[in-house]
Write a structure and sequence with these properties.
Strand content: 25-35%
Number of domains: 1
Number of strands: 6
Helix content: 10-25%
C-alpha cells in the first residue's frame, strides 16, 4: 500500500469516526443502522450527509495536508464582522458553534444551523518565526454503554 493510499484510508476512517460521533450525539438511544459490508459499500449520496458535517469534513480535509509554514484561516461572518475561527464545536449534527477572535481581539462565538453557515477558508503563510495555528474541531463525547447492559 502506498503512502497516498494509506493517507486516504486514514482520512476516510477519521471522517467516519467523526460522523459516527456526531450521529451518536444526536440519536444516542436509537437503534443504529448496520454498516454495509465492504463488498456492499457504495458511495454516499450528497443528500445523505448533513450540511454541518460536510462543512467540518471539508475544513479538516483542507487543514490536514498543510505544511509547518502554512495555516488555514477559517472565517465566518458574525453580524457586521468577520470572525477568525479558532475552534468549531459540533453539539448536534445540524448545529455549528464557531469560536474565535473578532477584529478587536474579543472572544466571540457564533451559533448557527449548519445549513446557514457561510465559511471562507484560505491557506495562508505563517510569518517567519511564528508557529502555525490549527482550527480545533470538538464533537460531543460518545455516550458510554452502561455496565451490564
Amino acid at each position: 500500500m502506498t503512502i497516498g493510499n494509506l493517507g486516504k484510508v486514514l482520512a476516510s476512517q477519521a471522517i467516519e469516526s467523526t460522523k459516527a460521533s456526531v450521529l451518536d450525539a444526536v440519536m444516542p438511544d436509537a437503534k443504529k443502522p448496520e454498516s454495509p459490508k465492504p463488498a456492499e459499500s457504495r458511495p454516499v449520496s450528497p443528500s445523505a450527509i448533513d450540511t454541518g458535517t460536510a462543512i467540518v469534513q471539508q475544513i479538516q480535509a483542507m487543514q490536514r495536508p498543510l505544511k509547518d509554514d502554512q495555516e488555514l484561516a477559517v472565517l465566518v461572518r458574525a453580524g457586521d464582522e468577520m470572525l477568525r475561527v479558532a475552534e468549531i464545536f459540533v453539539p448536534t449534527a445540524d448545529v455549528l458553534v464557531f469560536s474565535g477572535l473578532d477584529p478587536r481581539g474579543n472572544t466571540t462565538r457564533m451559533i448557527t444551523p449548519g445549513n446557514m453557515a457561510q465559511v471562507v477558508c484560505k491557506v495562508v503563510k505563517v510569518a517567519p518565526g511564528a508557529s502555525a495555528s490549527r482550527v480545533n474541531v470538538l464533537t460531543p463525547p460518545r455516550p458510554q454503554p452502561k455496565p451490564g447492559a
